[in-house]
Amino acid sequence: MPPYPSTYQIEEIFQDGEAVPQVLSGIVDHFDPKVKVTVVGHEHHLAGDTQAHGHFDFFSDLLDFSKPSKLQILRVIGGGESPWACVEGLATGTSKGGKKFHHEFAFIIRFNLGGKITKMRAYYDSAHMDEHVKVHHEHKAKNTN
């Protein structure tokens, strides 16, 4: 048996096809207590090292979780004999600003021998995220006036 999670086990960790809030919670459950999460990018409000267990909190600022959402795993490469894997995915739903949310992303992750995620590099579509943040703030300002 390989020492690290297999492609299939990694797909299970990322709960392919489930609602975004449940998926994010499940991923965090697989974080090692000392996990290092880095959002890759320049001049982007999410870029840099983040507090791992709060890393996905920004999704609750962007997505309207009262409406259907889904995380779909498009591809997993690695795992099994290698501690490293790449997860390519698509998150869909409705933003809090009422716009369609269709976000493609990739995570490069490293597992320890216990199957916990010790490193994660997140590659987000930063222009897409920034646009939804902008619309969310405009919507929020409009509703408070």
Q: Which percent band covers the strand fraction?
A: 35-45%
The assembly state of the depicted protein chains is single chain
Q: In sequence order, what are the helices and strands, one letter per element?
A: HHEEHEEEEH
The biggest beta sheet, please? 6 strands, mixed
Uncertain runs are none
Radius of gyration: 16 Å
Read across the widest sheet, the strand sequence of neighbours is 2-1-6-5-4-3
Percent helix range? 25-40%
**Shape category:** globular
Number of strands: 6
Taking all residues together, what is the mean pLDDT?
81
Distance between the termini: 60 Å
Number of helices, counting only DSSP H or I runs of 4 residues or more: 4
The assigned structural class equals alpha+beta
Describe the overall structure.
- 29% of the residues lie in helices and 36% in strands.
- It has helices at 7-13, 20-29, 57-62, 126-144; strands at 31-39, 48-50, 70-78, 84-94, 100-111, 117-124.
- It has a six-stranded mixed sheet with strand order 2-1-6-5-4-3.
- A hairpin with a 5-residue loop joins strand 3 (70-78) and strand 4 (84-94).
Which descriptors would you attach to this protein?
single chain; 145 residues; alpha+beta; 6-stranded mixed β-sheet; 6 strands; 29% helix; 36% strand
Topology:
Elements: H1 7-13, H2 20-29, E1 31-39, E2 48-50, H3 57-62, E3 70-78, E4 84-94, E5 100-111, E6 117-124, H4 126-144
Parallel strand pairs: 1-6
Antiparallel strand pairs: 1-2, 3-4, 4-5, 5-6
Short structural summary:
By secondary structure, the protein is α+β, with helices and mostly antiparallel strands.
